[in-house]
Specification:
This protein has about 70 residues and is mainly β. It is built from no helices and 6 strands. A hairpin with a 5-residue loop joins strand 4 and strand 5.
């Protein structure tokens, strides 16, 4: 089974805030993806990745005030 993943999430951020996003497929299913599931942000932000205690890939970043878009391009 192949997995196709897509999302487009938008926020209106009132003040800078640290965020953690768990939007990636679990590492055990990476081979089943049609395309890589790399998180994109608009505006572009520096993203630090880590694994939580369950093995999930987590993305940590600081969102600036204003519009924020999290997406995977199709």
């Amino acid at each position: 089974m192949l997995i196709r993943l897509a999302y487009d999430i938008q926020f209106d951020i009132p003040a800078p805030v640290a965020m953690v996003a768990l939007l990636n497929v679990h590492p055990s299913r990476i081979r089943d993806l049609e395309e890589p599931d790399e998180l994109q942000t608009e505006p572009r932000l520096e993203i630090a990745y880590y694994r939580d205690s369950f093995g999930n890939r987590c993305a940590r970043f600081v969102a600036l005030q204003g519009q924020l878009r999290l997406f995977i391009p199709r």
